[in-house]
Hints:
Blueprint: E1 15-19, E2 26-27, E3 30-31, H1 35-49, E4 53-57, H2 77-84, E5 89-91, H3 95-100, E6 108-110, H4 117-120, H5 124-131, E7 136-139, H6 150-154, E8 161-163, H7 165-179, E9 185-189, H8 198-205, E10 210-213, H9 215-224, H10 239-252, E11 255-257, E12 261-265, E13 274-278, E14 287-291, H11 293-305, E15 308-312, H12 325-339, E16 344-348, H13 350-358, E17 367-369, H14 373-379, H15 385-388
Helix pairs in contact: 1-2, 8-10, 9-10, 11-12
Amino acid sequence: MTWKTLDDMDLNGKRVLTRVDINVPMENGRVTDATRIDRIVPTVKDIQAKGGLPILLAHYGRPKGQVVPEMSLSHVLPALVEALGQKVAFADGDYAAASGAMTAGDVLLVENLRFAPGEEKNDPGFAGRLASLGDIYCNDAFSAAHRAHASTEALARLLPACAGRLMQAELAALESALGDPTRPVAAVVGGAKVSTKLDLLGNLVSKVDHLIIGGGMANTFLAAQGVNVGKSLAEHDMTGTAQQIMAKADTAGCAIHLPVDIVVTRDFAAHAANQTLHVESCPDDAIILDAGPATVARISDVFTTSKTLIWNGPLGAFELEPFNAATNAAAVQAAELTAAGALVSVAGGGDTVAALNAAGAADRFTYISTAGGAFLEWMEGKTLPGVAALGGETKGETDG
Ligand code: ADP
Ligand code: MG
């Protein structure tokens, strides 16, 4: 890893342009979940401890280059003040004057960057105006790093740049999972559809030792092997693609694990009458909503013999009890192995995080990424412009 951290920078007396993600959910002008704000506190405090003056740069919503008062960061300001436990100045007009007026101990928040058309265009002129406000650039917004915007990309090339603590933690976790992992590495990929995770599957089969496929997408793979999946969610037009992925895995020495038993029902509903059957016994009028206990036992064997686990996507329709059983059991197993020091476990994805939380397993995972799109693009082996601009090579690049 070649990017710098706050530890590598001399921040004393310097204005530190700090890109953060405080795009928090709000209702009636009030923040309803301050998690994202809480997570940037260590970076802000560290900059201050090193004598620096944090100038926070952030976006809110999608105002598309126009001033939209409801999307003003002034609404987020009270929650930021509370999280930091100090006064925060807000710049919505003359940014240069606001920056110039800062003295030791001050924090400044700049108005929603996306009010300016230059932000999302990665406009060098806009980046130059931002750069003139500070001396050092610190990016703590991994979740925005998959976008080449002025505050995530162009600006990083204009000033001495480093990663903030949250960015550093995220990159270290992803690096340990996919960049330079301890082997064997297992990946769980589940969720609804193969078509939304093609790039992910394609990259993982060349990187991991075991690929456990679950959820609706397992049905597509089963169908590609000629197994009847009844009326299950399955993309029958993706059969060829599934076969190619299995062939690629074979060449790369990656073992693919598909369900060996299934939980079927007639209704896509919680508590619907259901049966656990051998994978090849799905009735024509049934839908598969979960993997069965024999599959969970096999997954457990893979977890036990692995040193690293990457997880994206639930193993079944986890929102509907009891079709969360396989996801819950596997999640708890991964959490226990991690707590015992036997496994490095990294998970991400909106529904995945919800499922691991519901299973009571999330807090024992080594790292849970809340970065959404940026997490997936990293796992797909793509270059993240915001990481590349920090001088770090992007790990997990696709082969061939
Ligand atoms: P993430 O948000 O973590 O990337 P996805 O959005 O890809 O995950 O997948 C989650 C969705 O997949 C959930 O809504 C879940 O109900 C659905 N799903 C999982 N298994 C099945 C299945 N067998 N049939 C239908 N839907 C499923
Ligand atoms: Mg989802």
